Amino acid sequence: TDETILTKPHRDLLMQDMQHTSSAFAQDLADLQMNVVRLGMLASRQLNACLRAMSDFQAGQVDRLIEQDVELDNLQNVIDERVLSIITMRAPRADDLRLVVTAARVASDLERVGDYARNIAKRTSAVMDGAGDAKMPWDALIEIGTLVASMIDDVLDAYQQGDLEAAQAIRNSDIHVDKLNTGFMKSVIKMMEDDKVSALDGTHLIFMS
């Protein structure tokens, strides 16, 4: 009919526009997820650097680590801006929106890991400065931190692959970390009771775990 002839070009244009929008969204999402992975790699690097500083007993390394945290904050800001831009410009729905929101939440959690690493770095420096020759349970703390750093790397792999089963397995493995942490806190409290560490250093160690 005449109506069909008149509307067909419009339908073709609409389909082209939808395909273009879909392609643009896919690229935006890929870029967003890439930045989230970069953020995770930075957070993992921060944590591992902090663990190395503990292992080498180098307070200077810890001080540099604190200064480097700004890189994490800047990338988090970039991700926040990209999320807002995608939602505003692409108006994603259903599963697409879920992917964007998930990326934002993952980024927020990873940035928090960086904040925790910075806090641990500050407390590590304080304990190193005040401990003198006192023997601190660094090995136990490093064991916990190393396990957590490995979990972060595994989470990033699962996120990139969209592997739900792997993500759930990592979440379940947190039970082991909890057990180690509970044991560590008990040992530090015992050391404080026996006057092997000061109350201040012991408090730092507990908060670091």
Task: Name the features.
single chain; mainly alpha; Methane Monooxygenase Hydroxylase, Chain G, domain 1; 209 residues; elongated
Helix and strand topology:
Layout: H1 2-56, H2 59-90, H3 94-131, H4 138-161, H5 164-172, H6 174-193, H7 199-208
Helix pairs in contact: 1-2, 1-3, 1-4, 2-3, 3-7, 4-5, 4-6, 6-7
Shape summary? elongated
- What series of H and E elements makes up the topology? HHHHHHH
DSSP E strands, number: 0
- Distance between the amino and carboxyl termini: 74 Å
CATH level-four homologous superfamily name = Phosphate transport system protein phou homolog 2, domain 2
Low-confidence stretches: 1-6, 8-20
Q: How much beta, percentage-wise?
A: under 5%
Quickly give the CATH architecture. Answer: Up-down Bundle
Total domains: 1
Tell me what the structure shows:
It is built from 7 helices and no strands. Helix 4 packs antiparallel against helix 6. The protein has helices spanning 2-56, 59-90, 94-131, 138-161, 164-172, 174-193, 199-208. It has 209 residues and is mainly α. It has a single domain, classed as Up-down Bundle (Methane Monooxygenase Hydroxylase, Chain G, domain 1), CATH 1.20.58.220.
Quick recap:
The chain has 209 residues and is mainly alpha-helical. It is 90% helix and 0% strand. The chain is elongated, with a radius of gyration of 24 Å.
